[in-house]
Amino acid sequence: MPETAADVEDLALRLRGHINQLGALTSSQEPTLLRAQQLCSDGIPEGFLPSRVHLVNLAEATQELVVRVRHDDIRTTPPTRRWAWRKPQPNVLRGVVFALALACLMWAASVPQT
Hints:
Number of helices: 4
Helix content: over 70%
Low-confidence stretches: none
Order of helices and strands: HHHH
Shape: rod-shaped
Number of strands: 0
C-alpha cells in the first residue's frame, strides 16, 4: 500500500494511463470502459482510507478492462492453422522397421563375397 499522498497520486496516474491505453483497444460504449473512465474523472478523495479505496476501485476497473480486452481479442483473432503430426500406429512402425531390415538384408546378400 502507498505510504504518502504522493504515492497515491503516482499510482492513480499510472492506473489512469493503463485505463486510457486499454480504452483504445475496446469499444467506446463498453460499460466496463465507461465505469473506468468515470472513476478516472473523479478526483482522489482526501483522507487515508478513502484515497486507498479509490485506488482499489481504479485497480479493479483496470483488471476488468484487461479481461474484457483479452476476451474481445480471443473472439476476433482467427485460430492459426498448424500442421499436426499424428502419432503413427504401432503396426505402421513395425512395418517400416521390417521393410528397412529386409532392404538391408537384400543389399547385404547382393554384395559379392571375397
